[in-house]
């Protein structure tokens, strides 16, 4: 049984309200999304809350006494019928302020990424910023018309493969935790003494649509010709005569930053990250009093599909409906699992479970 509650500050009433009884809700958080989203329905007995909650009201969402999202209501909806009166609130988390606002056009010099990001966040009332590692100074930063604050930040951190995301009441910049030890352990079909969090359902997506077999970067020379500056190949795909080539242009503006980029490393990163994201594992679990959190790793052992691998939790959805509560995890291979899959690609061990003929006895024996 989940323990979920929200706090809403009503700008109209100048006070904070607590709600902890819901007909339904969906709290959708994904590191790949621009902003986390929520959609919650709760009772409005005798119209007591009518007109109290409005767009732009601040909201804090807690599960098991842990704040999982701070954001703003985008749209309240008051609904009545002959039997009941309910309110639906829809909104996004604090990073939405960086999406909804365009940066002012400017040319800046010697920009320190961490300082710039903190100044932008402070401007929109985001007082907690966590910068994971030092990033090089940008010699020249050109901000054009129509660029959102988040797009400028993504351009700044993209040179060093960093990501930006939000959690709770803060903005984080750094690397996803794809290489850490598993924090969670989920199982299906194992004996009770070997079992972890019970898996209600499991889906695997293994898409070849976006995978790249060859990535080539070009730069335009003064004579107008294109010079190849980097390339990376998935040789196992090419050897099987599966051709999926992508090319990109290195613009002169990329050099203005003053950051010396390793274009070959960049090419390898693109190919392998697209390969990683082509494999997606979706787990349905029962929502616990202490919520599972994204940007963590989970060890999954399933006797049905013979999966015995560590995955990175990229996204999570907390759901409640008339049939109860559940938690949906959207996972991609951890670094360890990615390396195994990449090295075994095209072989008999090249499936997500790494060993298609693994017996239940072997699975149990492999439980750490």
Shape: flat
Number of strands: 21
Number of helices: 8
Task: Summarize the biggest pleated sheet.
Answer: 6 strands, mixed, barrel
Strand content: 35-45%
**Mean pLDDT across all amino acids:** 89
For the record, give the distance between the C-alpha atoms at the N and C termini, rounded to a whole number.
28 Å
Task: Look at the helices and sheets and give the structural class.
Answer: alpha+beta
> What ranges have pLDDT less than 50 throughout 5 or more consecutive residues?
none
Rg, rounded, reads 24 Å
Widest β-sheet, arrangement of strands? 13-14-18-21-20-19
Following the backbone from N to C, one meets helices and strands in this order, namely: EEEEEEEHEHEEHEEEEEEHEHHEEEEHH
* Share of helix, binned: 10-25%
Assembly classification: single chain
Describe this structure in words.
- The protein is flat and about 75 Å long.
- It has 8 helices and 21 strands.
- The chain has helices spanning 96-100, 113-123, 149-158, 235-239, 252-256, 263-277, 335-344, 360-365; strands at residues 4-10, 15-19, 24-30, 37-43, 58-63, 66-80, 85-93, 106-111, 128-131, 138-143, 163-167, 170-174, 184-188, 197-206, 214-220, 226-233, 245-250, 279-285, 297-302, 307-321, 324-333.
- Helix 2 (113-123) runs antiparallel to helix 3.
- Helix content is 18%, strand content 42%.
- The strands form 4 sheets. The protein has a 6-stranded mixed β-barrel with strand order 13-14-18-21-20-19. Strands 9-12-11 form a 3-stranded mixed β-sheet, with helices on one face. A 3-stranded mixed β-sheet has the order 16-15-17.
- Strand 19 (297-302) and strand 20 form a beta hairpin.
- It is of the alpha+beta class and 368 residues long.
- The mean pLDDT is 89.
